[in-house]
Write a structure and sequence with these properties.
Elements: H1 2-5, H2 8-28, E1 30-33, E2 43-45, E3 52-55, E4 64-68, E5 76-78, E6 92-99, E7 115-120, E8 123-128, E9 137-142, E10 152-154, H3 170-178, E11 180-186, E12 203-212, H4 217-234
Antiparallel strand pairs: 1-12, 2-5, 3-4, 4-12, 5-11, 6-9, 6-12, 7-8, 7-11, 8-10
């Protein structure tokens, strides 16, 4: 560091400036929703009804959102526009989730795996992780085509996940991440719903959503300028000579 910025107080100040730029860049490389004060712009998708709430306590650790399945279709919550910035290939999409009720009536299929969907560049990709639990659990999906069960192509987000569906290619995955139009987390893990004859209520809670995005070009430009300018800032001025 000294070789780049020089020594002494000026060198330390210059190094601190560039470090601050880098820290700002890293902060902008993750988009988050922690639901500390409200729903943070998240909305229902393929679901309706009044049972979509911001809850101030009981999250991981405090504020969080909860959605009840009110439809026979796949129900989701979808991210606000701030999550639709270009996402970083090989980055992560993660969140904490818990389910209210894991009971299924006799004769019904078991619990569905935690499910997420991405749409962009004319493609719909769905991936699945582990099973949900009634305790807060973190689910993380790597943003490349092979992670978890694999990002697979479907015609829409209503289709059931199948490992037989075609897996996205690297180029397709990168195209979707560069042109995201929707990010959705399923809130539908049993066949119960308020419009069905199944008595159990399917209610899902979500907290601490995080997406790796690409830093804005302007931020990267500022970092580059700081790197170039810093050695000049610390160069000692030559004393003026009196003629």
């Amino acid at each position: 560091m000294n070789a780049l910025f020089g020594t002494g107080l000026r060198g330390a100040v210059a190094a601190a400036i560039v470090t601050t730029f880098f820290m700002g860049t890293c902060a902008k490389a993750d988009v988050t929703s922690t639901f500390d004060i409200d729903k943070d712009g998240w909305t229902l998708f393929q679901n309706s009804g009044p049972n979509f709430d911001w809850i101030a306590v009981g999250g991981n650790p405090t504020g969080h959102i909860g959605a009840t399945d009110n439809t026979a279709d796949w129900a989701y919550v979808q991210a606000p526009s701030k999550f639709l910035a270009p996402a970083r290939y090989d980055g992560t999409f993660s969140f904490d989730l818990r389910l209210d009720n894991l009971n299924q009536p006799a004769g019904f299929p078991g619990i569905f795996n935690v499910r997420v969907g991405l749409q962009g560049a004319g493609l719909t990709l769905i991936n699945e992780g582990a099973l949900p639990t009634t305790s807060w659990t973190n689910y993380s999906f790597t943003l490349n085509e092979t992670s978890a069960a694999g990002w697979r192509k479907f015609s829409n987000l209503s289709q059931n996940y199948s490992p037989a569906a075609p897996q996205a290619t690297q180029a397709e995955m990168q195209s979707v991440l560069a042109g995201l139009t929707r990010i959705a987390i399923a809130t539908d893990y049993t066949l119960a719903s308020t419009d069905s004859n199944v008595p159990e209520v399917d209610r899902t809670y979500i907290d601490n959503v995080r997406l790796s995005t690409i830093p804005e070009p302007a931020t990267l430009l500022l970092v580059s300028v700081a790197l170039v300018a810093s050695p000049l800032m610390v160069r000692k001025r030559q004393p003026c000579r009196m003629r």
